[in-house]
């Protein structure tokens, strides 16, 4: 018989595997069907377990990972914000700017103008 503790540990390992999959495939299209398949769960069960384990939905996690990746590009000197926005999966500079500011509290251009140390500290705070 599987105990609640064993189930929680198994779910935790499975969700860690999914999170690793997301981070290593962040530049590819990711959807709930694919991620549920990686976990070996039905879509509703995956959503419940992922949210319970991480405190955020898979879609929110993916969005945050893509925005953090974009922020690292800006920190490293990416000049064209529109290119960074498109690479993060946003169809417009405006949509990217709104999402970026919602996560970091700064516009992409404000973030880019921070020194490397301040930008790194802000990224660590979010991550």
Can you lay out the helices and strands and say which pair or pack?
Blueprint lengths: L3 H21 L7 H8 L3 H12 L3 H18 L5 H7 L5 H12 L3 H6 L2 H11 L1
For the residues shown, what is the average pLDDT?
89
Strand content: under 5%
First and last CA, distance: 37 Å
Helix content: over 70%
Tell me about the largest β-sheet.
none
Low-confidence stretches: none
Describe this structure in words.
The protein is elongated, with a radius of gyration of 17 Å. It has 127 residues and is mainly α. The mean pLDDT is 89. The chain has 2 domains: 4-55; 66-126, Orthogonal Bundle (Arc Repressor Mutant, subunit A). The longest helix has 21 residues, at 4-24. Helix 4 (58-75) runs antiparallel to helix 8. It has helices at residues 4-24, 32-39, 43-54, 58-75, 81-87, 93-104, 108-113, 116-126.
């Amino acid at each position: 018989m599987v105990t609640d503790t064993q189930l929680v540990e198994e779910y935790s390992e499975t969700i860690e595997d999914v999170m690793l999959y997301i981070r290593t495939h962040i530049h590819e299209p990711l959807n709930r069907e694919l991620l549920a398949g990686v976990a070996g769960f039905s879509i509703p069960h995956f959503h419940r377990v992922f949210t319970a384990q991480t405190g955020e939905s898979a879609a929110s996690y993916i969005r945050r990972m893509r925005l953090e990746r974009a922020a690292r590009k800006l920190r490293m000197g990416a000049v064209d914000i529109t290119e960074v926005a498109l690479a993060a999966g946003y169809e417009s500079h405006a949509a990217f700017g709104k999402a970026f500011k919602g996560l970091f509290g700064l516009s992409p251009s404000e973030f880019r103008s921070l020194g490397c140390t301040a930008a790194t500290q802000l990224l660590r705070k979010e991550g």
